[in-house]
Amino acid sequence: MVQIKTMPKDTAAEVLRYLAEYEEFQAVEKLVGSDLAVGEVRAVLRELAAELEHESFAEGKASFDVKSCKTLSKSSKNIISCLSSREEKSLLSAFGLIENPAQQTPTAFAGKK
Question: What CA–CA distance (Å, rounded) separates 113 from 1?
């Protein structure tokens, strides 16, 4: 399990996917030449992003499953499926379908005033 302290794992996954998609990685070609292809760098970034997103989901397991929800229309489910995990959590918490992590009281301070 990867330990990241600077940002949430799903956010880190989005950053890695963005870099894999849009970064040119010109320095990679200059530094390592033909030993490492830019495509390989992109692939490993995508792989890391997928793993981080998987870990984030496993750690946070939202109490709401969009796919099995009977109250959401097919169109709503299709729209939600296009969102990143962070955007999905924000949307679902805005509509009160899941608890907003920003509003949760940390357990270390629970009961203290």
Answer: 34
**Helix residue ranges per DSSP H, the chain:** 9-22, 26-32, 38-60, 74-81, 85-94
- Distances in whole angstroms, Cα of residue 4 to Cα of each of 11, 24, 51, 71, 107: 11, 25, 13, 35, 20
How many other β-carbons are positioned within 10 Å of the β-carbon of residue 20?
18
Q: What are the distances in angstroms from CA 98 to CA 20, 63, 87?
A: 30, 7, 13
81-106: average pLDDT: 71
- Percent of the chain scoring above 70 in pLDDT: 82
